[in-house]
Amino acid sequence: MMLGFDFWAAAEASAVLFGIFGLILVFLARDIDRWPARLCIAILSSALLSAALALLKRAAAQNQVSHSLFRALHCAEALITPLPSLLVFAYFLQCCGENYLKSAAMRIQCALTAALIAAQWLAHLTGAVSITPDYATRAGRWSYVYVVIISALTVNCLIALFLRRKRVTGAQFVMFLVCF
Hints:
Elements: H1 7-28, H2 34-62, H3 67-80, H4 83-95, H5 104-125, E1 130-131, E2 137-138, H6 142-163, H7 170-179
Helix pairs in contact: 1-2, 2-3, 2-4, 3-5, 4-5, 5-6
């Protein structure tokens, strides 16, 4: 029997490897200041954990574990997945010389991220998200809420980037534009 290529599993495995190699590089680098190094570790660790949970969820679906375990993995993934982008946004504000703890843009980003996590959890707890017998997840009416919140997160990032574009270098601007 020939095994088919699973693009998403390969992408998730690549993300896990990227996170591991990134963490190794941060630990080996000696020229990085303390705060950016810790932030890189936090970003890479949360991205690594998110990709690992996605891989675990995929393996659980293929091995047909209980639906409650699959739902628990899905909820854990919903909690972890938005964190890397929030940390990158904090790093962007830090690069602009702004205190990210007092920034209105960061507060909006945190509120939207909390709303996304809450919406995902509520959808699971109320049963609005269904898991089919083949372990596919159907968001139903909640999919519109996810799209609106994710769009608002992106718009907030882009507005913050364009308002602060003079405070970052051209290379940083392009990097954050790609990240956001």
